[in-house]
Amino acid sequence: MRFRGLAYLPAILFWWLICFQLFRFVFYWLITSASTRFLSGVYNGMITDFAAAGYLILIPAALWMFGNFIQGNRINLIKPNLIINIILAIFVCFIEVVSLPLYAEWGTTFNLRAAVSAASPGEAATTFFDYFSWKWLILFAAECAFVITGFYFIHKYLYDQVRNKILGICLPLVFVPLLIFGIRGGTGNFPINSETAFYSHNQSENYMAVNKTFYFISTLKQKKHLDIVDINYNREELAATYTKLYNTHGQNNSKEALNSSQPNIVLIILEGCPAEAFEPLGGEAGISPCFTKLCSKGLLFKRFYASGFRTDQGLLSILSGIPALPYLNIMADQTTASALPSLIKELNKNHYLTAFIYGGNADFSGIRSYFESNNTQVIIDKTAYTEKQLSIEWGAPDNELFNMATDKINEFEEPFFACILTQSTHTPFELEGKHKYPGKSTSDRYKSTVYFTDSCIGNFIDINQNAKWFDNTIFLITSDHGCLYLGNLDFNDHERFRIPLLLFGEALKVEYCGKSTDVVGSSHDIPATLLSQLKVKNGVFPFSKDLFNAKSYNHAYWITDHTMGWITNDRKIVFNFSDMEIYNTEGDTTNNRYFVIEGMQFYKLLAEYILLKKQPDIR
Fold first, then answer.
1. Could you report the per-residue pLDDT of 496-506, keeping only the tens digit for each?
2. What SS3 class is residue 302?
3. In 3D, which of 169, 151, 157 has the Cα closest to residue 1?
4. What predicted TM-score, i.e. pTM, was given to this entire model?
5. With a cut of 50, which residues of the chain have pLDDT below it?
6. What is the rounded CA–CA span in Å between residue 457 and residue 451?
């Protein structure tokens, strides 16, 4: 078997391709089988399989080719090569298995955002065990065993060094170009990306097709860069679009909705609660009765949207007026996040006491760093609770959170701004005592936690209605993002991103109580809207509009890693922001291409502002 070593690299390539089809079938079977075509996924995703295999073979190939130059077989590299392939196998199996529950949660497989979100050991452990039940651990072990067994036999029977000097010289000249060819996906001018495998308007089909390891590697390239920054748009057209979207920016001609010039502000941010969890917004009756009751005393925004699908995106949107961007966890980048405008900074300037009250770990995803960099005067997280109070996986449940909020707020000097972030509606939906919905389905467990959090808010309002600060307070209830737990929505459905915004309290003028509005807005509009009501200039928030200004251009935006939603008064569009292919349209369908370009120009201006520190121009 003089030349058996020549089969070594082809065998590794072939084995990886076999494993990738197994992984794809597992994703198809467990996640998407009801709506996808497996063979179409194999066909469209094969090019990313070759690219991923190329990346994974690089180190073993280099080590093997180096061994071919060692004379006399003085150094046996079979064990180092086997160990490297075992490590790579574990790495790939981890990506494949964690992508299964992650996809149901985020609508995307393992990517840069997931890696950054688990940056600290404690946070990583919490996230891991939150997503990984025993079935995922067993699957992970089984996949690792399968892949590693294959590599063991390849190294046992096919690994050998090529001792022919001529072949030793020629092999790199052959294999290196082939590896580069596979990684690039051909000889085209540009290498392939993850969307090369996307062939359908059904997001599940696309993620079944794309190789999960290649997808993760491709998102690493987006850590400090987005492709939209490199796309050239006419600067005059960009300025014209920005002027249209924010034609009242910096102007203080808002309708006055408050009867106080300096009210206390209590901002309640719900964890992952979409509009369909609330009856006044078209949801099922009975899930959130306290919210329904509060709507009779407040102003409800019925066409209000989150721009992203993660808490870090929601917090930056609500507090800094920054819409979400794909791939990036901006809050975890302290340098970038601290340079952004902040509602807290503006309120500090206007003599507000500012506070963040949470029941979880404030070090999660850079939350603490963000609030500290904005000089938040009071930061409460799980470290302020007793061990008994920390009764759920993520820390303190929402009843303990609102008890803490009551204790702290009653100590505050007025005026104050208190941001309260809930967490009981986060997976794994832990509740003590009897559940409102006794079923064991994800939907029932989630609804029970929404009911629980809703009751905690109701109790919080009832307990504090006689407090000295209550009569001069405006309350806001919104959500950091939506979710899919109720099982009625698709990943690219606008309703996935529609969330509540309710204003109520004694500081709200009586003519707004019990009313609702169809003004189109996003969570990043909250800073400009609040500051306008306080008669404070809002020009430092370039992407936040005043919802009480009748001249504001009604629009909302949301984004995933591959698709964008653009919403105006008369239409809703979903499109792929890489090639601007329209997936669906609701409402007026005329001039759709114009509105897609408008959305892309907004995305371009936003990316330039965050990544290049470039202020939008006004025409």
1. 999 999 999 99
2. strand
3. 157
4. 0.85
5. 1, 74, 120-125
6. 10
